[in-house]
Amino acid sequence: MITFEDFTKLDIRVGTIIDACFFQKAIKPAYKLKIDFGKKLGIKYSSAQITDMYQKDELIGKQIIAIVNFPPKQIANFMSEVLVLGTYSDNKVVLIKPDVAVENGDKIG
After folding, report:
1. For residues 60 and 17, what is the distance between their CA atoms, to the nearest angstrom?
2. pLDDT in tens, 21-80
3. 46 and 85 Cβ atoms separated by less than 8 Å
4. pLDDT over 90 (residue 89)
5. Considering the entire predicted model, what is its pTM?
6. What are phi and psi of 4, to 5 degrees?
7. How far is Cα 84 from Cα 95, in angstroms, rounded to an integer?
8. Where are the beta strands (DSSP E) in 23-85?
9. Which of 11, 25, 70, 80 allows an S-S link to 76, with CB 3.0 to 4.6 Å?
10. Residues paired with 94 in a beta bridge
11. Which domains occur in the chain, in start order?
12. CA distances from 26 to 32, 45, 48, 58, 88 (A)
């Protein structure tokens, strides 16, 4: 169990995917995502293993939810700056997203 104070340490925000390309050097199939988190946070990058459920072209313009205050993680030759959130369904990742359009950078919690 964690405390509410532990939860509040996570900075979870809404962003819009503005670019997606296949991550050739990833060990498991993944996309490199370029995500707009609004004026305060700007553009961030993430590696996401979502190739089973999404084509890269359908990701452009999709809003997602991500943790933006984990330390960056080097994955092959790419620096992943945020953790895009999803659920596992039949061993495939399904993105968590707002059900209506909201402002990029809006805080969850």
Report:
1. 5
2. 999 999 999 999 999 999 999 999 999 999 999 999 999 999 999 999 999 999 999 999
3. no
4. no
5. 0.94
6. -60, -35
7. 8
8. 31-36, 43-48, 63-67, 73-75, 78-80, 83-84
9. 25
10. 87
11. 15-103 (2.40.50.140)
12. 9, 15, 10, 21, 19
Asked if residues 101 and 63 have their Cβ atoms less than 8 Å apart, the reply is: yes
Centre a 10 Å sphere on the Cβ of residue 4 and count the other Cβ atoms it contains.
Answer: 7
Which has the closest alpha carbon to 83: 9, 12, 23? 12
- Token pair recorded at residue 42: 């700007």
Query: Token pair for residue 49?
Result: 């293993």
27's tokens: 């060990």
Which pair of tokens denotes residue 4? Answer: 């509410």
Which residues 6+ apart lie within 8 Å of 39 measured at CB? 105
Tokens of 55: 């084509």
